[in-house]
Amino acid sequence: MGNSISGVGVLDKAVLILTSCAEGASLAELVDKSGLPRATAHRLAQALEAHRMLVRDHENRWRPGPRLGELANTTPDVLLQAAEPILKLLRDQTGESAQLYRRRADERICCAAAERHSGLRDTVPVGAVLPMSAGSGAQVLLAWEPPEAVLPLLPKCRFTAQTLTEVRRRGYAQSVAEREAGVASVSAPVRDRTGRVVAAISVSGPIERLGRRPGDRLAMAVIRAGQRLSGH
Description:
Layout: H1 9-20, H2 27-34, H3 38-50, E1 54-56, E2 62-64, H4 66-73, H5 78-94, E3 97-104, E4 107-114, E5 129-131, H6 136-143, H7 147-150, H8 161-170, E6 173-176, E7 183-191, E8 197-206, H9 207-210, H10 214-229
Helix pairs in contact: 1-2, 1-3, 5-10, 6-8
Pfam family, one: IclR_C
Domain IclR-ED: 67-232
GO molecular function, one term: DNA-binding transcription factor activity
């Protein structure tokens, strides 16, 4: 191992061991991946196993342990905490239901929502799983992905590569009856501190209210909401 990244050598080595075991590793593989001496790699892996951060499978290979997931699940989701007031404001500004979506492989998950108070609504409950093949939220979540991550999905999509190019150009997506008959939506990206798109913020409702070009009226409010939420 080269120079210490953090200045705390043993911590850097422990992280290196965890990273090397991400897809499973025997002791020999661990030594090869980490570049650490065999005795050091073995000692650290055993220590991480004692803390349940590593476990051994039936082939005696180390893999990530349950403690990692337990710690992750107790960490507050800063993005969701920040999203609640922003979604409510977006709903009040537009008069339409607002949602936040994250991608999970070939699906997108509604992680947070603010429903319209009355009248005809497009209800997408928190936890709803929607396809990545249709809808403005899916377009936003794919538009800034590298081509190799998008091309395998396009044959299943109700939008094209040209659609995604247009989404990148104007900074938002709109869809009309693409995911569900009678429903229109407008979505914009939410970015992390590095600029990577990590979520899509949306408003949706019946076509009879939003019209056939919902972005003309709603895009600016959705874009600004995405900008306020970005960086969390």
